[in-house]
Structures are given as structure tokens and as C-alpha cells.
Amino acid sequence: MRILLVEDEIKVGNAVCEGLRAEGYEVTWAQTGEEGFFHASSQGFDLIVLDVMLPGRDGIEVLETLRKQGAKTPVLLLTAKDAIEDRVLGLDAGADDYLVKPFAFAELTARLRALLRRNKPETGGVLNIAALEIDPIRRIVSREGHRIDLTAREFELLEYLARNHGRVVSRQMLARDVWQETDRATPLDNVIDVHIARLRRKMDDPFETKLLHTVRGVGFTLSEDNS
């Protein structure tokens, strides 16, 4: 599990990183809102731990911008403010949970596990998005009753997008999880873009409603929402 920690307090950041890594999580630590936003926009994380009080761009602004871009990654806010209006502000901005400082590390990890369980994608059964139907077992795709013939790689790409339905998926996530390429010395961006174009031509172009969308500068999302 990959976690992004956005926290400017060195003591807190060191303690959280050390504790999470000891439990087997892969942690990226950003110390400013701008740095955190960059990592969240360009990389794939399973969860974001985001401090509210940050230098420059604060946590609420970072969260609101991510949500406006379509990011669905669960976010746990860390806040030193315990007033109800502050909690409401964070939840309304798109947070999935919050934790008031100072906190016990055991409570932090319990809340993270709960968020990860809640957002874990289903791994079996037929996937249905609007009139698009994907059968992972039989590897059959159809839309509005019409069979869509895909290559093995195109099917893997579509299935991955479908399991992240409504979330923005970056090229780095596709390279890592679909192409199983962890060494980014040779970028796969052009290869990914070619496969996205072919997939869009087969499963989107013949139909009025478009499902596969490009989020400029971030990645791609499979969603019936055209906004």
C-alpha cells in the first residue's frame, strides 16, 4: 500500500513515516502543500494523510483542488483544530476522515486500515459501468449488447480503469500496475497513450456517451460523468 504523507512538522513526519514503514507501508513524505499536490497529481497512492496547517498552500486548498480534478483517493486530514466547524469544513472539502492532533499512532493506523478496507476495489464478478459490461473471468467486453474485441493488453487496461471507476489513474499507475514496469528509466507514456487511443476508438467512439476521459496533466478516468 502506497501512502502520501503531507506534513510540515519534522518531528511528527519522522514519527509517522517510521511507524508506517515499520508496518509495511510505502510512504512518500511531502513537507509543503505544493509538494504534496505535485505528488498526489502525478503519482498513484492508495491513501493520502494530509495536514491542514501547511506553509503556503494549506491542506484544505490542496484537497479541494484534487477533488475538482476528479481524484478519488481517500484522504485523512490531520488537524490541530477540534472545533466542529473546522471538522465540517474538512469533510465538505472532500476528506474521508479526520484526526485531531496530538493523536496516538495506534489510532492513526486503525483509521488508515478502515479507509483502505472501505475503498478496496472488488476483485471478482462482472463489472458494469453504464451500458459497458466487462467479464474478467471470460475476458469478454460488450456495450449496449455489442461485443467489443480487445487485445490482451487492451483488456487489462480497461479492466484496471473499470476497477478504479471514477478515479483518476495516472500514467505512472498504469505503467506500474498494468505493464508491471517499475523502472521508469524508459518511459512508457507514448505506449500508454497509443493503447488509450485504441481502446477509446473501440469502446467509446461508436457510442454517443463517452466513458473514457483524459484529465489533462494528470491521467485518465473511466466514468459516465462528462463534467
Structural class: alpha/beta
Spans where pLDDT lies below 50 across 5 or more residues = none
**Number of self-contained structural domains:** 2
Please report the total strand number as a whole number. 11
From the alpha carbons, calculate the radius of gyration and give it in angstroms. Answer: 19 Å
Mean pLDDT comes to 87
N- to C-terminal distance: 30 Å
| CATH architectural label of the largest domain | 3-Layer(aba) Sandwich
CATH structural class of the largest domain: Alpha Beta
Shape summary? elongated
Q: Which percent range describes the beta-strand content?
A: 15-25%
CATH topology of the largest domain: Rossmann fold
Reconstruct the topology from this structure.
Elements: E1 2-6, H1 10-22, E2 26-30, H2 33-42, E3 47-51, H3 59-68, E4 75-79, H4 84-93, E5 97-100, H5 105-118, E6 127-129, E7 132-135, E8 140-143, E9 146-148, H6 152-163, H7 171-177, H8 189-203, E10 212-215, E11 219-222
Helix pairs in contact: 2-3, 6-8
